[in-house]
């Protein structure tokens, strides 16, 4: 990657070469034995460790903020009523028992009025084209109870291997149903890690952001500031907001576990670095030049080239520093993407 003169506002700054064999196809047998790269922004220092030592890099009184969303079996295979042609729905957001926002394929064949059958008596009709391959659809019965039988967990397209157990693509603390993708920075956590954190007097709390596929889609506009983020639903409770603000008052660090937690915290942060309890939608796009208000450290995986996730991390760590970290990660054969290794940016 080469730094542009516009400090990260050009798409070319987020391209890098990744040998395909470095894309992790499955989690490690022991999740907390992934590699951990430590990036200290003060002094631009890079050190290497393992995730089971993650608590050692935090201080008593620090607070981890984790995303407790749970991936639903949101991928539905169906057939059009008239032609019998194969189609696919990826459920994105539930409006009520019968109405959902969905990504559909092939979009050109699923115009308004199209009817689809999925099996088990489930049918749907397309009500509205909402753009970008998305549709508002109406089912003939509540779909959520049928998803475990007829739906599949929507793994990212770069995972080619059948992982068998769909729970491998969930964090161990996933509890609130609603995501089309997992908050993968949380994959490294195990009961042993939480125990070690508690012994070190490092606390944790949860927010929710239901992740849509738009988060992972590459930016295509050469001027990245022209990219439009898709909205995602989030929720931060009164209790969580109070915990975060108390840590701020006491001088501790608020550590965002993943880019999704980071986006929620920055969405609800005030200018004085305190956060507010709120539920709603965020389309916050963070890229170099953004001034962070709430996040004091960031745990994150290694992301796809030209993705908004890489741009967020570059905004937090500094574009040149993150570029160097990625060069080191490729040279030292780190594992990339959802089931890969991680970095802690301090």
The proportion of strand residues reads 25-35%
- The count of domains is 2
* The CATH homology group name of the largest domain: QueA-like
Strand order of the largest sheet: 2-1-17-16-14-3-12-13-15
Q: Secondary-structure element order, as H and E? A: EEEEEEEEEEHEHEEHEHEEHHE
Continuous helix count:
6
Describe the structure.
- By secondary structure, the chain is of the alpha/beta class.
- The protein has two domains: 11-71 and 165-345, 3-Layer(aba) Sandwich (QueA-like), CATH 3.40.1780.10; 75-150, Thrombin, subunit H, CATH 2.40.10.
- It has helices at 147-150, 191-199, 238-250, 259-268, 308-317, 319-331; strands at residues 35-40, 45-50, 63-67, 69-71, 75-80, 86-94, 99-105, 115-119, 122-131, 134-139, 176-179, 203-209, 232-236, 254-257, 278-282, 297-301, 342-345.
- The strands form three sheets. A nine-stranded mixed sheet has the order 2-1-17-16-14-3-12-13-15, with helices on one face.
- Helix 5 crosses helix 6.
- The model is unreliable at 1-5 (pLDDT under 50).
Task: Give a nutshell description of this structure.
By secondary structure, the protein is of the alpha/beta class.
Defining traits:
Thrombin, subunit H, 6-stranded antiparallel barrel, 2 domains, 17 strands, disordered N terminus, 346 residues, globular, 28% strand, 6 helices
Write the layout of secondary structure elements.
Elements: E1 35-40, E2 45-50, E3 63-67, E4 69-71, E5 75-80, E6 86-94, E7 99-105, E8 115-119, E9 122-131, E10 134-139, H1 147-150, E11 176-179, H2 191-199, E12 203-209, E13 232-236, H3 238-250, E14 254-257, H4 259-268, E15 278-282, E16 297-301, H5 308-317, H6 319-331, E17 342-345
Parallel strand pairs: 1-17, 3-12, 3-14, 4-11, 14-16
Antiparallel strand pairs: 1-2, 5-6, 5-8, 6-7, 7-10, 8-9, 9-10, 12-13, 13-15, 16-17
């Amino acid at each position: 990657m080469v730094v542009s003169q516009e400090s990260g506002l050009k798409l070319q700054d987020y391209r890098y070469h990744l040998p395909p064999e470095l894309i992790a196809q499955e989690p490690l047998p022991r999740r907390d034995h992934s590699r951990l790269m430590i990036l200290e922004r003060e002094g631009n220092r890079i050190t290497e460790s393992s995730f089971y030592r993650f608590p050692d890099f935090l201080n008593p009184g620090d607070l981890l903020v984790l995303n407790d969303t749970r991936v639903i079996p949101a991928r539905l295979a169906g057939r059009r009523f008239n032609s019998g042609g194969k189609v696919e729905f990826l459920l994105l957001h539930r409006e009520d028992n019968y109405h959902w926002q969905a990504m559909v394929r092939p979009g050109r064949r699923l115009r308004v009025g199209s009817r689809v059958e999925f099996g088990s008596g489930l049918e749907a009709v397309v009500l509205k084209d909402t753009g970008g391959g998305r549709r508002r659809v109406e089912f003939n019965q509540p779909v959520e109870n049928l998803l475990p039988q007829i739906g599949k967990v929507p793994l990212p397209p770069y995972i080619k291997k059948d992982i068998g157990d769909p729970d491998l693509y969930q964090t161990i603390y996933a509890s609130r149903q609603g995501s089309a993708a997992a908050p993968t920075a949380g994959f490294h956590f195990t009961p042993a890690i939480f125990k070690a954190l508690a012994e070190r007097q490092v606390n944790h709390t949860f927010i929710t952001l239901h992740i849509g596929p738009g988060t992972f889609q590459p930016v295509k506009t050469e001027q990245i500031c022209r990219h439009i983020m898709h909205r995602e639903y989030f929720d931060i409770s009164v209790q969580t907001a109070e915990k975060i603000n108390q840590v701020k008052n006491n001088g501790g660090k608020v550590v965002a576990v993943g880019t999704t937690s980071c986006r929620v915290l920055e969405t609800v942060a005030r200018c004085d670095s305190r956060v507010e309890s709120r539920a709603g939608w965020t389309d916050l796009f963070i890229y170099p030049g953004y001034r962070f208000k709430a996040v004091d450290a960031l745990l994150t995986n290694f992301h796809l080239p030209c993705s908004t996730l890489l741009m967020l991390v570059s905004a937090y760590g500094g574009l040149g520093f993150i570029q160097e970290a990625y060069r080191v990660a490729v040279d030292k054969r780190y594992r990339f993407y959802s089931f890969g290794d991680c970095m802690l940016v301090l």
